[in-house]
């Protein structure tokens, strides 16, 4: 029995993923910026960082369940608050890092009446609207709040195609599976398959938060400081993010 238990424990240990490099969990919408920052950091210091991307909600839950993350870049403050209350953040490392904006998009080439407001497009809309799931995805939560602010949520909520992250909402529009979508401007700017119809008036600013996670080592701290530097931030700003 003791031998069996020892073998079982050894199996679990060797089966767990081990990251020699710091692990950054980052919102899906920061994919290109985070990758560029990691590349610039490597060129400057010789260090390397592992990147994992998903909706901020999914990443925060992974951290709370013990994922070996050392840094977290969240697309809103709500999920950073969630980790802070559970004691997962390194004290005094949480910062408001970047900002973004919401835009209304349609498939490229789709015939759309030009130069209308988002409210005008959505008021006469009868198709499907792609957006992040407002129950937990930051982009969806920002979008729902904006549509409520504009008095449109009751009208469009039955037309919503909710997605697990904002990049999937973009994909639905790119593939023509949804006639309209609401995504971050930086995501729309990267796509060659959608057109931006109009900005969305936001109920609250779209802000990204950055923090070190409890147990972060010296390499993670070094990368954190790089992200805060002008060079680190430029990796995101060059893609349309704002400070």
TrEMBL record:
Q: What Pfam families is this protein classified in?
A: SBP_bac_11
What residues does molybdate bind to? 29, 56, 139, 166, 184
What lineage does the source organism belong to?
Answer: Bacteria, Pseudomonadati, Pseudomonadota, Candidatus Lambdaproteobacteria
Q: Which domain of life is it from?
A: Bacteria
| Quaternary structure and interacting proteins, as annotated | The complex is composed of two ATP-binding proteins (ModC), two transmembrane proteins (ModB) and a solute-binding protein (ModA).
What are the recorded Gene Ontology BP terms?
A: molybdate ion transport
Record-stated family? Belongs to the bacterial solute-binding protein ModA family.
Q: Where is the signal peptide?
A: 1-20
Q: Which GO-annotated molecular functions does the record name?
A: metal ion binding; molybdate ion binding; tungstate binding
Q: Which keywords fit this entry according to its UniProt record?
A: Metal-binding, Molybdenum, Signal
What name appears for this protein in its UniProt entry?
A: Molybdate ABC transporter substrate-binding protein
Q: Which organism is it from?
A: Candidatus Lambdaproteobacteria bacterium RIFOXYD2_FULL_50_16
What SUPFAM superfamilies has UniProt attached to this entry? Periplasmic binding protein-like II
Instruction: Give start-end ranges for the coiled-coil region(s).
Output: none
């Amino acid at each position: 029995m003791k031998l069996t238990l020892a073998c079982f424990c050894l199996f679990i240990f060797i089966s767990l993923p081990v990251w020699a490099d710091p692990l950054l969990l980052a919102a899906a919408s920061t994919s290109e910026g985070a990758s560029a920052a990691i590349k610039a950091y490597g060129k400057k210091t010789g260090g390397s960082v592992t990147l994992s991307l998903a909706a901020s909600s999914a990443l925060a839950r992974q951290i709370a369940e013990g994922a070996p993350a050392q840094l977290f870049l969240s697309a809103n403050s709500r999920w950073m608050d969630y980790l802070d209350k559970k004691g997962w953040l390194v004290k005094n490392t949480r910062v408001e890092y970047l900002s973004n904006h919401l835009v209304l998009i349609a498939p490229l080439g789709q015939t759309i009446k030009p130069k209308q407001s988002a409210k005008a497009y959505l008021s006469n809309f009868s198709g499907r609207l792609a957006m992040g799931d407002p129950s937990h995805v930051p982009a969806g939560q920002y979008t729902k709040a904006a549509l409520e602010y504009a008095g449109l949520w009751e009208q469009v909520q039955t037309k919503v195609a909710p997605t697990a992250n904002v990049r999937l909402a973009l994909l639905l529009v790119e593939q023509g599976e949804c006639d309209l979508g609401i995504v971050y401007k930086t995501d729309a700017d990267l796509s060659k398959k959608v057109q931006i119809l109009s900005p969305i008036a936001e109920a609250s600013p779209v802000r990204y938060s950055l923090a070190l996670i409890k147990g972060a080592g010296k390499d993670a701290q070094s990368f954190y400081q790089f992200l805060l530097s002008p060079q680190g931030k430029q990796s995101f700003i060059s893609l349309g993010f704002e400070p």
